[in-house]
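Sequence in, structure out.
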Amino acid sequence: MSYDSEALAGFDEFFGRVLASLSPARRRRASMKLGQALRRSNLARIRANIQPDGTAMEPRKPRLDRRGRLKKKQGGRMFRMFRLAKMWKIDAQPDSVEIFPAKADNVARIHHFGLPGTVGRDRQGRAIKYRYPSRRLLGFAPEDERLALQVAEEMLGLDG
């Protein structure tokens, strides 16, 4: 999706030194644990409709029925699919970890970057396009740094 290079700069250096002291198998295991912790953290934010920087996501527009009236149940929860862990894959390597959508990655990309997408067709069959507001799904929040340090503690065996 999008990288927070400035947020990851100091963390990457520290965690790289920690991982360098481990064997390749333990590094991959540490990367997987880090990926799982970051995925959990990001899914909790998606569930709460909060972006990684702590701001609320722009709410959904109310939908209209075929007659042009507002539907009774409007708004609703966004990203029902993306709130599930099975929708996000983790690629853990000894030197890196990547979290990405397993399915419907086009939907995730459109919402994350605020791209135009097709929302339906008009009566003549032409596509109706809409530019979605940018809603950052994945990112590195300040709480994620603490999660990463906890994973590093576990891997080094520091329980205190």
